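The following record pairs a protein chain with its ligand, glutamic acid.
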Amino acid sequence: MAVSSYIGRFAPSPTGPLHKGSLLAALASFLDARANGGQWLLRIDDLDPPREIPGAADRILRQLDEHGLHWDGPVLYQSTRLPAYKEALQQLSCAGLLYACYCNRARLRTLGGRYDGKCRIHNLHASATIHDKPHATRIQLPEQSTVTFKDVIQGPLLFDLNKAGDFILWRRDQLSAYQLACSLDDDHQGISHVIRGSDLLDSTPRQIHLSHCLALETPQYGHIPVLSNAEGQKLSKQNHAPELSSDKTTSNLIDCLGLLGFSIPSELSNSSNQQLLNWAIDHWQLSNVPVLRRVTESDSP
Ligand code: GLU
């Protein structure tokens, strides 16, 4: 059998243990990788210490194992990758693509989600930049910044990056922004396919743009529906999504398989996690995954 060049990944942030919404994303990326004879890598996005919960990364690793989602090779921790992020930032700076942004939160809040480029103009005209004052670093987008890509689940998509304006690559608190770290690490890990939740759909064109600026390989992307609660909010640690229960791993998997478009035959209802996963790998079809941006638990048959 030919060796597959497919490399997928799951990249949780250790801001708490996994809940059902994160299991859905883990499972979709796992099944797509395994059904394609590919590798499935695990990256812990521990980029943001103020938001992290001590012990959460180890808990996530245990939860994946308990559900039979075994990854390949060593886990990559983003906290070990800071030098690479700084080097890429330097490269973009030398290319004249970055500027310092001194806008505070209060000002950004008044802009309604679109950065107006105030500091871009200021930086271009100032004779010297006041680098000692706390600032974030933004990438300067070209005038024409339409990004198109074919999402393997949602179909062809088109985004105008300028709608949200120049985005942050390096934060005011001296941490790498998610967009920069994610583009660099997907390239570093040789990721060919990123299957993740639709909540990250707005990030994808930014990451594609960055990978072009840095001459990185661009993976294929697929966005699955995000699991929401009955009020329509995405399940998350912020809105108290319950931690995945360790004694219900099989029913957790069955629920998530239902949300990914599977009809599970009744003879599998007493199967082990491994048998269920093997069956799902054999029957995985991207075209069965709902093209919705959101689902609720009651959508699982
Ligand atoms: N770490 C990000 C999160 O948990 C996801 C990163 C990704 O899949 O690109 O939301």
